Amino acid sequence: MANKEAAFKQIYEANSKKIFHLCYGYTGDDDAANDLLQETFLKVWQNLEKFRNQAMISTWIYRIAVNTCLTYLRSEKRQAKDELTPLIAETKREELSDKNEKVALLYKCISKLEESERIIITLVLDELPYPEIAEVSGISEGNLRVKIYRIKQKLTELYNQYERL
């Protein structure tokens, strides 16, 4: 048991920041992202013995996180949050420095993307290697590069629309 705890602690320390960013990219909300982070690592803990080393452990954890986020989004319906988001974003924007404001705007733009696009761009921002992103997202590396290019174009358009406001 002590071995499992030590291994888990090491896995958590190596992956928790990236998983938080992934969850935040899906939700745009610190509290929800923290909840999803905890839920993801609870599942990692519960299934650690089942991990077969066929893929990198970070890829396995990303898959768990993505599934956790998608389940959350489906069950959440998000109507009430969508109405509150502009007000919350406006309040937070007043509290943030210029750099943080741009990062918050980027995440707001990311939240407007389709689910599959959100995961891919979040993994790119976390600087995951393309082969690993391809494995997590379930598409070929060549197709991934095209998707990333299109997502970046879409994000640039969204970002520029918000900047003009």
Automatic annotation (TrEMBL):
Keywords: Sigma factor, Transcription, Transcription regulation. GO terms for molecular function: DNA binding; sigma factor activity. Residues 11-78 form the RNA polymerase sigma-70 region domain. Transmembrane segments: none annotated. One of its GO terms (biological process) is DNA-templated transcription initiation. Belongs to the sigma-70 factor family. ECF subfamily. This is RNA polymerase sigma-70 factor, ECF subfamily.
